[in-house]
Amino acid sequence: MPAAIPSPGSDSLDIGSLELRAYGLMIALGVLAAAWLFARRFTQRGHSPELASSVTVWAVVAGLIGSRIYHVITDWKTYQGNWGEAWQIWEGGLGIPGAVSAAAAVMWVYARQKGIPLSDIADSVAPALPLGQAIGRWGNWFNQELYGRPTDLPWALEIDPEHRRFQYLDDETFHPTFLYECIWNLALVGALLWIGRRFTLKPGRLFGLYVLGYSLGRLWIEFIRVDFASELAGVRVNIWVMLALILGSVAFLLWNRGSDGDSGAGEAVPEEPDADEATPEEPENISLET
């Protein structure tokens, strides 16, 4: 068999007598990394560390609930007749669009109650989200899920027979879509941080760029995935969702354009004259009627 990335022999990590589910552990590590970067950027905007912690707690709780609801709704056939498994998060199944949507809704309410600009939260969290997503995706490696079409590329991923779909039982290696998404998200983190430093953007625009960048990456990855997923009109539901997010983010960025600029040497803005300085009198209008 050609060189390939092996899958873990177990979906848990044993530390002495303590057994940790690897999926949950990677999600937790992703949340911690995202919370760290968000707090760093949020406090740089003049907000207190306590407010950053409060925002993080509400966002994480809302995100976890929203992500699971999204997964169950879009993959409801998986739980048909056995709805007790719908909340077994440790088995995998957290939908990122649901997490972001639920967290955004809660943050909108929170920002209004606290009297802080929602854009301060949105633009602070924009590069933090893909950082957390990049780390959390490694939970799918432990669970042997979210893989792509069969391939014999050197970076192909081995999938055990019990985790393969029946039409791929004779195939041993597949595209590691979890790894593709991880790399894409890390590149997106770097791009957003660079854009935020290089340009002066209108409030909320950096978050719009995150939505666009993430959706574009997720779209092409969805096209090569072959793991089970609910479909609409013969197309994976997540593909429809990503297309909607791409259109929505492009519309927002076009509507929100206008005052972005280079954060380096910008154009000089003429100073307003002091109120107590004498200003020249306007000349009288002269009629030139004939």
Strand content: 5-15%
> Please, how many helices?
9
Helix coverage percent: 40-55%
Gross geometry: globular
Features of the shown structure:
single chain; 290 residues; mainly alpha; two-stranded antiparallel ribbon; 9 helices; 8 strands; disordered C terminus
Question: Helices and strands in order, then pairings?
Answer:
Elements: E1 12-15, E2 18-21, H1 22-44, H2 49-74, H3 96-114, H4 118-125, H5 128-136, H6 138-143, E3 157-158, E4 173-174, H7 177-198, E5 199-200, H8 205-224, E6 231-232, E7 235-236, H9 237-255, E8 261-262
Antiparallel strand pairs: 1-2, 3-4, 5-8, 6-7
Helix pairs in contact: 1-2, 1-4, 1-5, 2-3, 5-7, 7-8, 8-9
Characterization of this structure:
The model is unreliable at 265-290 (pLDDT under 50). The chain is mainly alpha-helical. A two-stranded antiparallel sheet has the order 1-2. Strands 3-4 form a two-stranded antiparallel sheet. It has a two-stranded antiparallel sheet with strand order 5-8. Strand 6 and strand 7 form a beta hairpin. It contains nine helices and eight strands. The protein starts with 11 loop residues before the first strand and ends in a 28-residue tail after the last strand. The longest helix has 26 residues, at 49-74. Helix 7 runs antiparallel to helix 8 and helix 8 (205-224) runs antiparallel to helix 9. It is 52% helix and 7% strand. The chain has helices at residues 22-44, 49-74, 96-114, 118-125, 128-136, 138-143, 177-198, 205-224, 237-255, and strands at 12-15, 18-21, 157-158, 173-174, 199-200, 231-232, 235-236, 261-262. It has one domain (12-77, 90-141, 173-258).
